[in-house]
């Protein structure tokens, strides 16, 4: 079974591939970092059983890229990944005809189950985005319960890390020096009990909404 995973951040792909491989024993994951690469992989034989697209990678232009993929592959299940997990994004992709919308913060077991559900012919959209009191633009989940007492500044850095941003990009987003980001992440790694970025992403992804 071929599954195409497209995300422009290698770190995110490395964290997600082990979960995707749990969907079925014979899964082979083809990786891409742009929409066009994903579309090209989708035309190869055998046809992929699923195509997973990052909502904000190059070439997507938000829901425009989703619609393009839907037109090109009307019979292949499409799943959209989102680092922000906003209700607006979920609704717009749903209307574009995708079979699934998966926040990158979803825990590992839930992600595997969501992908299995889509492969079985069903659709997956997280209920927490549509329940009573849901915000139009949901915020990222808190990380305060993961592996120790993380400071708000460490949480901010880790949330951006989860989106796949580099240290330089995180520094620009937070309006701080890159060395400050490195210090915050190093402190967070110690509290999480990990030694690098990939392990941190895996820990946070496994913690999901319970953190």
- Share of residues in helices: 40-55%
Order of helices and strands: EHEHEHEHEHHHHH
Uncertain parts? 131-142
Tell me about the biggest sheet? 5 strands, parallel
**Class from helix and strand fractions:** alpha/beta
Based on DSSP secondary structure assignment, what is the total number of beta strands?
5
Strand order of the largest sheet: 2-1-3-4-5
Mean pLDDT over the full residue set: 83
Note down, in words, how this protein is organized:
By secondary structure, this protein is α/β, with parallel strands linked by helices. The chain is built from 9 helices and 5 strands; from the N terminus they run E-H-E-H-E-H-E-H-E-H-H-H-H-H. Strands 2-1-3-4-5 form a 5-stranded parallel sheet, sandwiched between helices. The chain is globular, with a radius of gyration of 17 Å. About 6% of the residues have low confidence.
Strand and helix map with partners:
Blueprint: E1 2-6, H1 10-21, E2 28-32, H2 35-42, E3 50-54, H3 63-72, E4 78-82, H4 87-95, E5 100-103, H5 108-119, H6 152-162, H7 167-174, H8 178-192, H9 197-207
Parallel strand pairs: 1-2, 1-3, 3-4, 4-5
